[in-house]
Amino acid sequence: MTFQLDGSYRPVLVVGGGQAGLSMSHCLTTAGIGHLVLERQRAGHEWRTRRWDSFCLVTPNWQCALPGFPYQGSDPDGFMVRDEIVGYLEDYVRSFDAPLVEGVTATRLCRLPGGGFRLSTSAGEVTADHVVVATGPYQVPLKPRLAERLPGQVVQLHSSEYRNPGRLPEGEVLVVGTGQSGCQIAEDLHLAGRKVHLAVGSAPRVARRYRGRDVVAWLHDMGYYARGIDEFGDAEAVRLRANHYVTGRDGGHDIDLREFAKQGMELYGRLVSVQGAELSFADDLRRNLDSADATSEGIKDSIDKFISEQGLNVEREARYVPVWEPADRPRTLDASKISAVVWSTGFGRDHRWIDVPVFDGKGYPTHRRGVTSCPGLYFLGLPWQYTWGSGRFCGVAADAEYLARRIVEGGRASDVRWLSGTPVTTYPSDAEWVAPRTVA
Asked: Which InterPro entries does this chain map to (predicted)?
């Protein structure tokens, strides 16, 4: 029988069944708050369908710490591959019997005149006092308009559609973009023996290990993942920063684009135009490589300072020396040389179904720690929602707990349907929310 929502009511609705929505569900369950999680596809859909075959986490498994469900496998310092991530989320759903309904699409959310919300879905309408939007930031794959100018024989796909080298036609491949996805896909193709052309952007990089530990472990101890967005003077710019590229593949290692070039990968600056069969690139390759290296070395400087301040007895390590320099690099590429392009150019948001005025001029939800100006409407799972860890397996728990506390405080005390009868968890105060830390 098809699930139907017509005329029903829930104290809280959670839209989205990824790690954010499931974390919210766990916190609400712990607090005894009746709720329902609606997922358009299946739980963990993004991990199932928008990741390539060799995909793995770039953060160690020990950082997988969803509420009430820390990683308990045999390889805490390893990096879960795609199918293991999906399995981790499936086990999480079962661990607390999440009230999850899959295959239901939210089509319109509106505010009711007397308070609360009406959500229209593919399974009917439902009302609620509170709604948590946990649909994540990666909703609409983005390609630049110049993609329309490429010759028709060139196969084009977004990074979310890439699976493995064997699914691309034979021949040379252009990868555009060097965020985490672009660099890892370029490596995947390179290791498979494909000739790769890589348009290098301004994303920073980070070393995998330094002075005997994974750099993530150092940054964790230094408090970087818990540092709040309100500690920055340029909060909006911080939210737009690209993630550092590195990989957990084969036990984890650096991604060094200079090393790829030394091995035969062709590097270019940013792709700026397509005229007929000629692709033109900006003269910024050296600057982009140098900037990425400088970021990585700057992080090492911070680690050195932390080690010194803490009086730790840790052996020193030689610093990175560039293995290749981009002297006299080509700034054009004949499209007839390539058979395919992988656009690693990011994603956009699609909140058109939310008919509540909580967005800025760029379509970004205005909020503070996920709490919007509309009472009862919240967002969860956004990058830098409050900390660098927000939206990640390591930080989404704190954000979900914070919102659960806000929901408990804002519940309708006169409505006995609002709570299930289970004692409400006492969540930490604002001052206690971020654990004590040392920031280098």
From this structure: Auxin_biosynth/cation_transpt, CHP04046_FMN-dependent, FAD/NAD-bd_sf
Of 119, 95, 89, 91, residue with least CA distance to 105: 119
The number of residues in the chain equals: 440
- Per-residue pLDDT band for 411 (boundaries 50, 70, 90) equals low
Place of tokens 């996920």: 370
Q: What angle do CA 267, 272, 278 make, to 5 degrees?
A: 75
Tell which of 312, 343, 374 closes a domain: 343
* Unique residue bearing structure tokens 């700034």: 331
Residues 23 and 74 in one domain: yes
Shared-domain flag, residues 218 and 305: yes
Q: Using an 8 Å Cβ cutoff, are 374 and 397 in contact?
A: no
Which of 343, 362, 382 finishes a domain? 343
Q: pTM to 2 decimals? A: 0.91
Total domains present in the chain: 2
| Start-to-end Cα distance in the chain | 57
The average pLDDT across 67-79 equals 96
Residue located via tokens 């040389």: 337
312 within domain boundaries? yes
Residue 116 to residue 123: CA distance in whole angstroms: 19
- Between helices 19-30 and 82-96, what is the axis angle to 10°? 20
* Angstrom distance (rounded) from CA 36 to CA 17: 10
Q: Can you tell me which residue has the tokens 């999850």?
A: 100
